[in-house]
Amino acid sequence: MRTSRGSGGKNRHSSALKMLRGSTTGLNLEEPVSPDGPVTKPGWLSKGAGEVWDRLAPIAITMGTVTAADVMAFGTMCELQTALEHAVRKGEDVIVLRIGNALRPYYGMFGLEPTSRSRIHVKRDEPVSKWDRALA
To answer: Which of 3, 55, 67, 91 has the CA that lies 20 to 30 A from 9?
Structure first.
């Protein structure tokens, strides 16, 4: 599970992390949880986007920033990256700028830039409360 900073203000944290730290304020007890299961490359990706997936998905999966619930968004990012690489090869500077601006939030979502990684919290196999840790 990951959380990232919104458009401004304080860093946001997942309910699990807040509980682990002993906080009871701002808990979302109905926070969606990504289903367990493998992250598989979708069949609808173009050939180029499939190649981008093959380059980037192993990195994001290892970092824990892409889950089975994120496949659609990650695939969209791969398509945008493919379009960006195509525009760069053709020297289409205006299109490169537009696609680059569209890609920036996706890089942030999946921790694919240094500054975004400092704002992302990934739930590892940790106890859900401080008491579970103390009893373990």
So the answer is: 67
